[in-house]
Amino acid sequence: MKKLVLTGAAGRLGSYLREPLSRLCDELVSTDLAEDLGKLYPGESYVKADLQDLDAMVALLEGADMVVHFGAVCDEAPFETLLGPNFIGAYNIWEAAHRNGLRRVVYASSIHAVGMHKKTDFIGIDAPHRPDTFYGLAKCFAEDLASLYWDKRGLESVCMRILSCAQVSNPRAVGSWLSYDDLIHMVERAIDTPITGFSVVYGVSNNDRAPVDNSKAQHLGYRPKDNAEQFAKEIYAEAGPLDPQDPGNTHHGGPFAAVELGNSGVALLNLKEEGNAKS
């Protein structure tokens, strides 16, 4: 592949993807709002650009084969805060990809697009949208945008509904964990699968207690290897009994399903500080 573009390259997940993506193409253009990324990998360049600027996105995607879109505000926030980067930014990426004749958008969607479904329902990739927050609503918008651009303009998309890509630090993550190795594997399959059309896949590892069903995404060849069960005994003992009436314990969105609209969900996840890996 000649050229890939990675948005959100300064973020926690984007930083993990830079090196493996640089090995898949002659030229990797990483972009974010940070002033720089520090050390660049062979074939990688950095362009500071705002997702809300359509002209900047059109220029950024010129000559690219695909764009891997991880740029966004990555938490629940007031709608006005998310409107620019998460809603308009998504439109700008798909529109810029279309104008430049890209083949595919690989998109970091989220379980929060379906976060109000109950975990006991074991939902598949065809579950109807049930966002848990404005953040989840933005993911629904981008997924529908991806579907529209495939149906009307022939632009392929793979929407990866990531569950929990961080260290296992809470009971929910025993089922929802996506390891960094499995994240990289999923993105690679989203890029190298010959034909995807409009596809959805859940970003979750091979956990014994995974609450979602990827059986209708087999064509992508995503076969996760890691399993969070190794952490279960310690995590459950540490957490103690969970309230079965708390939507944060019973719904796919976890704390995002319980917070008031506009309030942070990440603040309730008990995430461990890891820094920006490989940045």
Automatic annotation (TrEMBL):
Keyword terms: NAD, Oxidoreductase
Domain NAD-dependent epimerase/dehydratase: 5-162
Alphabetized InterPro entries for the sequence: Epimerase_deHydtase, NAD(P)-bd_dom_sf
Family to which the UniProt record says this protein belongs: Belongs to the NAD(P)-dependent epimerase/dehydratase family.
Name of the featured protein: NAD(P)-dependent oxidoreductase
Source species of the chain: Hoeflea ulvae
Lineage of the species this protein comes from: Bacteria, Pseudomonadati, Pseudomonadota, Alphaproteobacteria, Hyphomicrobiales
